[in-house]
């Protein structure tokens, strides 16, 4: 179980990127009523700023921490980044080559290696931020902060889970359309995302939206806890038994609800603190 307790009415989703990319997506999901979720996609926040290597890490971390602490005061945070590294980069008793660079869950879902590939920089960024949050005992992995993997959720939902990066999709006259060939528009359509206005989303926005939705749906729509472990071991099937990372949650089915997307042009911290 995910230790969320009472039904969650607000949850946040963060698709975090490295400091220098300016591509992180941040979204907030609010349960309007039993048939309606509203997801706010934020544009202005420190995670979306390009930051040079010469920037003082303390100043950046404090601003990032301020946003997350404010958000966590209203609901849980679901992050698209490995958090519990399960012994990487020095795993004990590794028997297979893949275990040197992947966690079992990464291998099962064909995800990028946490440290030995493109996401090493975002992993380092969030690990630094998460470490600063651990100064307060209430911000624990699996209680208020969770790891999720949007591409893994899309896989469980039998939706396109590849070939949607570096794309944009636009909602015009009730239809999601993309200028560039790929799966992003199809994903938005299959997730039954809608909007009352013309709106454009990129792949980071979609990932953040999936993260936020994962935090607000009923538990019967989630794959978590022992069920994640069973899925991993069915997928790898080499005679070994592998545990799931702490606080790892995926969306396995969609609720029969309206999911309405809005964009917010205000500073994230200013809006959430209201």
Beta-strand content bin: 15-25%
Order of helices and strands: EEEHEHHEHEEHEEHEHEEH
Distance N to C terminus: 31 Å
Uncertain ranges? 1-6
From the spread of the alpha carbons, the general shape counts as globular
Q: Would you tell me the structural class of the helices and strands?
A: alpha/beta
- Kindly provide the radius of gyration, computed on alpha-carbon positions and rounded to a whole number of angstroms: 18 Å
Q: How helical, in percent, are the residues?
A: 25-40%
User: Strand arrangement, largest sheet?
Assistant: 5-4-1-2-3-12-8
Mean pLDDT reading: 93
Q: Main β-sheet, in a few words?
A: 7 strands, mixed
Q: Strand tally, please?
A: 12
The number of helical elements comes to: 8
Structural domains: how many: 1
Descriptive account of the structure:
This protein has 274 residues and is an alpha/beta fold. The protein has one domain. Helices cover 28% and strands 22% of the residues. It has 8 helices and 12 strands. It has helices at 57-72, 104-108, 120-133, 150-156, 184-190, 203-214, 226-236, 268-272; strands at residues 10-15, 25-33, 36-44, 77-79, 145-147, 168-172, 175-177, 193-194, 199-202, 222-224, 249-251, 258-267. A 7-stranded mixed β-sheet has the order 5-4-1-2-3-12-8. Helix 1 packs across helix 3 (120-133). It is globular.
Quick tags:
274 residues; alpha/beta; 8 helices; 22% strand; disordered N terminus
């Amino acid at each position: 179980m995910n230790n969320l307790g009472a039904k969650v009415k607000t949850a946040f989703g963060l698709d975090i990127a490295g400091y220098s990319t300016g591509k992180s997506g941040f979204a907030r999901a609010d349960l309007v009523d039993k048939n309606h979720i509203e997801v706010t996609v934020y544009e202005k926040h420190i995670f979306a700023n390009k930051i040079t290597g010469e920037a003082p890490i303390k100043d950046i971390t404090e601003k990032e921490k301020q946003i997350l602490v404010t958000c966590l005061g209203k609901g849980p945070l679901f992050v698209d980044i490995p958090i519990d590294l399960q012994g990487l980069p020095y795993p004990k008793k590794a028997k297979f080559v893949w275990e040197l660079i992947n966690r079992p869950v990464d291998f099962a879902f064909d995800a990028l290696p946490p440290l030995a590939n493109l996401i090493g920089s975002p992993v380092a960024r969030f690990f630094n931020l998460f470490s600063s949050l651990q100064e307060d005992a209430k911000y624990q992995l699996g209680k208020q902060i969770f790891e999720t993997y949007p591409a893994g959720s899309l896989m469980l939902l039998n939706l396109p889970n590849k070939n949607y990066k570096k794309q944009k999709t636009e909602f015009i006259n009730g239809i999601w359309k993309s200028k560039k060939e790929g799966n992003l528009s199809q994903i938005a359509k299959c997730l039954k995302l809608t909007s009352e206005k013309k709106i454009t989303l990129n792949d980071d926005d979609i990932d953040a939206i999936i993260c936020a939705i994962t935090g607000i749906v009923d538990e019967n729509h989630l794959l978590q806890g022992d069920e994640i472990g069973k899925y991993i071991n069915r997928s790898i099937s080499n005679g070994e038994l592998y545990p799931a990372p702490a606080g790892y949650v995926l969306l396995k089915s969609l609720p029969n609800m309206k999911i309405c997307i809005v964009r917010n042009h205000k500073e994230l911290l200013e809006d959430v603190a209201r």
